[in-house]
Amino acid sequence: MKETKKKINGWKIAFLILIGIILGGVLFSTVRIFTARETNLPPSSETTVPKGSPVLTMNTNKKKLNTVMEYFLNDLQKDSDVKYEFYLENQAMLKGEFKILGAKVDFYLYFDPYVMDNGNVQLKARDLSIGTLNLPVSQVMATVKRSFKVPKWVAIDPKDQTIVLKLNKFKLNNGMFIKANHIDLVGDDIQFSLYLPKEKKSNN
């Protein structure tokens, strides 16, 4: 009789231990699921990029940039009678036409691009192809400035024979802006950085 009780008690103890293990496992899993995992990441305030700092650096090439410029110019000139093209080869090239004595004359104006300290791009006129005509570059650029529709952030200076792409004036809809870092047309290596909007200074 005593042996039977011992066997029953032994099974009962083993059964209770098994139940305890199962409950303990369920409880442990529940705690792990609903408890936020600790990581070594710094607080969000430490990983936030300050405004006015570059958040993305983009490397592109002439082919991709030409596609973007073609789309942009087509949209800009859709209501204009005077058309022109601007694209990149081993030099930057402005192609267009104007009238002399009622005749249409095609011209090709070639530029060397330079990245300025402020991230803007200066295009310095290098050469002009205009058929058999012998016109100075400054005169052609003056005609371009007078006749062609250009974005507000593009400044044409016929006297200095330069065109400045004021990227700091070219704002995206969300206030972000672009700066040029490096332009190598021969090596087909073009790099820009994307910046968050600068913080506005308080009057207080």
Description:
This protein has 204 residues and is α+β, with helices and mostly antiparallel strands. The chain has four helices and nine strands, in the order ααβαββββαββββ. The chain has helices at residues 2-34, 44-47, 62-76, 137-147; strands at 54-60, 84-88, 92-100, 103-115, 121-129, 154-157, 162-165, 177-184, 189-195. The protein is globular, with a radius of gyration of 34 Å.
Quick overview:
This protein has helices spanning 2-34, 44-47, 62-76, 137-147, and strands spanning 54-60, 84-88, 92-100, 103-115, 121-129, 154-157, 162-165, 177-184, 189-195. It is an alpha+beta fold and 204 residues long.
Q: Bin the helical content.
A: 25-40%
Strand residues, percent: 25-35%
Biggest sheet details: 6 strands, antiparallel
Structural class: alpha+beta
Q: What general form does the structure show?
A: globular
> How far apart, in Å, are the first and last alpha carbons?
93 Å
Multimeric status of the protein: single chain
Question: Order of helices and strands, N to C?
Answer: HHEHEEEEHEEEE
Average pLDDT across residues? 77
- Strand order within the widest sheet? 2-3-4-5-7-6
Number of helices: 4
Give the low-confidence spans. 25-50
Roughly how many Å is the radius of gyration? 34 Å
Number of strands: 9
